Amino acid sequence: MEPGELERQIAGLASLDEPVRRSLYFYVVSRQGDVGRDEAARAAGVSRTLAGFHLDRLAEEGLLETSFRRLSGRTGPGAGRPAKLYRRSARRLSVTLPERRYELAAALFAQALSEAPGSGAADALGKAARALGKRLGAEARRQAGARATVKRAWRSAEAVLAAHGFEPQHTGPGEIRLRNCPFDALTGDHRALVCGMNLALQRGMLEGLALSGVRAELEPRPGCCCVAFKKRGRTKKAG
């Protein structure tokens, strides 16, 4: 990493050291859509002016993106000024001292797997991902307890997914989406390989969790991970 980029990364992380700013940042990134100053101020328990100051500082650091839109939906004279809205940016912050390049190694592995068609390497990756997913699901089930309700078991699974950076979120009746892809740096050149690996991982987690009536599907959506969980009717715990 170039010295200038390292300084920018550190400055971005340092900007989150202020408690109110950090609270506002985590609130904005937890929302599915754009967030206005009034909403953010209420969530953080601060004034609109103070919220605006910190939100703009986060935007200056590249941690948030801004846009303008009339929240009332009205147009024309008397509709009022467009509101300034905030959402999470695509910027990634990562600082390791001394520097490590794990993404470079991962990219080399992905390239080698992609260039070895018919070798069985991709199938081996899928099997390894599914096996890891089963271990994660089994751990979630153990944490929930042997007599856990379906709701409690899912909460435990969501906690495991969150701990690994997937940011699970309920986005509709019977649907859970993963708002973040921890493997995003590799998807540009190796999307099919990486998304296939991720699908195998999530399906393995469902096996380990032992819940019936839930399936993991590839359903790419901008700003989200490629996998979504769908519940079919009434979900029952497997025996």
Descriptive report:
The chain is an alpha+beta fold. The chain folds into two domains: 3-88, Arc Repressor Mutant, subunit A (Orthogonal Bundle), CATH 1.10.10; 102-237, 2-Layer Sandwich (Muramoyl-pentapeptide Carboxypeptidase, domain 2), CATH 3.30.1380. The chain is 51% helix and 18% strand. It is built from eight helices and seven strands; from the N terminus they run ααβααββαααββαββ. It has helices at 3-14, 19-30, 37-44, 48-60, 102-114, 121-144, 150-163, 184-209, and strands at 35-36, 64-69, 83-88, 168-172, 175-178, 211-218, 227-237. The strands form two sheets. Strands 4-5-7-6 form a four-stranded antiparallel beta sheet. Strands 1-3-2 form a three-stranded antiparallel beta sheet. Strand 4 (168-172) and strand 5 form a beta hairpin. The longest helix has 26 residues, at 184-209.
Mean pLDDT: 86
First and last CA, distance: 51 Å
Determine the structural class based on helices, strands and strand pairing: alpha+beta
Task: Please outline the major beta sheet.
Answer: 4 strands, antiparallel
The third-level CATH topology of the largest domain is Muramoyl-pentapeptide Carboxypeptidase, domain 2
Query: What is the helix tally?
Result: 8
How many domain regions?
2
Uncertain stretches: none
N to C succession of SSEs: HHEHHEEHHHEEHEE
- Strand percentage lies at 15-25%
- Which overall shape is indicated by the principal axes computed on the Cα atoms? globular
The share of residues in helices is 40-55%
Question: What's the CATH class of the largest domain, please?
Answer: Alpha Beta
